[in-house]
Amino acid sequence: MQLGYLTVRKGFVLENDGEIATFRILGYRTDTQAQVNPNLTFQIAIMEAPPQCAENDTFNERTRSMLVVTDMIVNWFEAYFEGKL
Predict the structure, then answer these.
(1) Which of 40, 43, 37 is nearest to 9 (CA)?
(2) Dihedral sign, CA of 28, 29, 30, 32?
(3) Integer distance in angstroms from the first to the last C-alpha of the chain?
(4) Dihedral sign, Cα of residue 41, residue 46, residue 52, residue 57
């Protein structure tokens, strides 16, 4: 199994749902054991704060939400590659 390609979008404004990267894994099978780099990182920058959409819509709450969603995605990947999904 190997990475066929990885394409990362550079410098764009992410609105609502959006694609930040695409990749293809060659030779993947459902019984494949995979090891990944746990130190993979990417940077997110906020150009301008969008207007508040609710009373509790603050920078702290948005940041907390991003951390929670990131944790959920990482947990999903871990469960998937450990065969728990």
Answers:
(1) 43
(2) negative
(3) 20
(4) positive
Residue 21: burial class (beta carbons within 10 Å; 0-12, 13-18, 19+): exposed
3-42, pLDDT tens digit by residue? 889 888 887 777 777 788 888 888 878 887 777 777 877 6
As a whole number of angstroms, the distance between CA 13 and CA 30 comes to 35
Buried b / exposed e along 41-78 (16+ C-beta atoms within 10 A): eeeeeeeeeeeeeeeeeeeeeeeeeeeeeeeeeeeeee
Query: Quick one: tokens of 13?
Result: 């404004």
Tokens 């704060």 belong to 49
- Among residues 43, 42, 25, which one has the least CA distance to residue 34? 25
